[in-house]
TrEMBL record:
NCBIfam families, per the entry: excise
Ranges for domain Helix-turn-helix: 6-54
UniProt lineage: Bacteria, Bacillati, Bacillota, Bacilli, Bacillales
Protein name per UniProt: Helix-turn-helix domain-containing protein
Coiled-coil parts of chain: none
SUPFAM superfamilies according to UniProt: Putative DNA-binding domain (SSF46955)
Single GO molecular function: DNA binding
Length: 61
């Protein structure tokens, strides 16, 4: 069974950016995420949809 959530490190690897970029995007609410206590997680499906939306809007990620 494939995990459907990503940690900050995994999201950074998946998107090809550094961890600091992910933390900045979380802080400025640029990227969809959720927290369990203090830990930050991302839904892989939601990230895929978000990336497609960014591509369609020609926005710089």
């Amino acid at each position: 069974m494939e995990r459907r959530t990503l940690t900050v490190n995994e999201a950074a690897d998946y998107l090809g950016v550094c961890n600091d970029t992910i933390y900045t995007m979380v802080r400025t609410e640029e990227i969809p995420h959720f927290r369990i206590r203090r830990r930050i997680f991302f839904s892989k499906e939601t990230i895929d949809i978000w990336v497609r939306e960014q591509e369609m809007n020609h926005q710089v990620i």
